[in-house]
Design goal:
With 272 residues, the protein is of the alpha/beta class. Helices cover 40% and strands 17% of the residues. The protein has eleven helices and ten strands. The chain is elongated and about 70 Å long. It starts with a strand and ends with a helix.
Length: 272
């Protein structure tokens, strides 16, 4: 049997008894990162006085998963195997989806255990989702594609959930605040850990708050859905800055949407 075992996203106590039973049963572990997996097993053995001792740890991640599956023996899955990503539910913005797809297509018995998931934790904590929501995972890092992703995010008819790295969280919220400064946003970092941080406010307030915080840690963001008063064709600051116009004209246009004087905007344009 192939087991997909969710791991704690922060608090070690979030591991389920079912997961612990499966980990003691399996002799082979497939891991997104074997070092992270070994460290987790050491902590679990110590905390719960267990004797989880797999015979082997094998790497199975985004960069080697196709090659791995093409090279294994046909009897490989006759044994009990546990797959674990670094944190949370395998297959949700983590490796695992291809392995499940492979199991389905090759009639391999598998089971997905229930457990920690940062997206659902954020959805419930935000109180922004009454029924439907859209999970977008990590947005693209590419400049033009990232811009499209953010624009699509702002037009979604349901609240949207996004994962974001600490190096990009401020830039993401800044762009959202320029498009719709009053859009309600919930952010949470280090979910379930000792120094968990979370708050909800409009985009502009969230952006100001983030500038005061230590941004280190993984972030999850819930962005409220588009409202009737929000116009898809509204220009934002980035749109104006990209226009091939004289600086004075840009400054005048910017003053219409950011409440700053034309002179302030002009001086900022000169320095950029």
């Amino acid at each position: 049997m192939l087991y997909f075992v969710p791991t704690p996203i922060g608090n070690l106590n979030d591991i389920s008894f079912h997961s612990l039973e499966i980990l003691q049963k399996c002799k082979l572990f497939l891991c997104e990162d074997t070092r992270v997996c070994k460290s987790l097993i050491t902590l679990l053995n110590k905390k719960y006085n267990l004797n989880i001792q797999p015979q082997n740890y094998l790497s199975f991640h985004t960069h080697n998963q196709k090659q791995f599956l093409s090279s294994i023996d046909e009897n490989f899955f006759d044994q009990d195997i546990a797959y674990m990503s670094d944190a949370g539910m395998p297959g949700i913005s983590d490796p695992g989806q291809i392995l499940i797809d492979y199991a389905i297509k090759n009639d391999i018995a598998y089971e997905v255990l229930s457990g920690s998931n940062a997206a659902l934790l954020a959805v419930v904590s935000s109180a922004l989702c009454y029924k439907e929501f859209i999970f977008m995972g990590f947005l693209s890092n590419n400049g033009s594609q990232r811009k499209k992703d953010i624009e699509n995010l702002m037009l979604n008819p349901y609240p949207s959930v996004v994962y974001e790295a600490p190096t990009r969280i401020l830039e993401l919220i800044e762009k959202i605040s320029k498009i719709d400064p009053l859009r309600e946003i919930f952010v949470i970092k280090e979910a379930s850990k000792k120094f968990e941080t979370k708050f909800r406010a409009n985009a502009l307030e969230v952006f100001k708050k983030l500038q005061e915080l230590d941004l280190r840690g993984e972030w999850c963001v819930v962005v409220d859905c588009v409202k009737d008063k929000f116009c898809q064709n509204t220009l934002c600051e980035d749109d104006i800055l990209e226009l091939d116009l004289p600086l004075k004209t840009k400054a005048k246009l910017l003053s219409k949407i950011n409440a700053k004087s034309t002179k302030e905007n002009y001086q900022k344009l000169l320095l950029s």
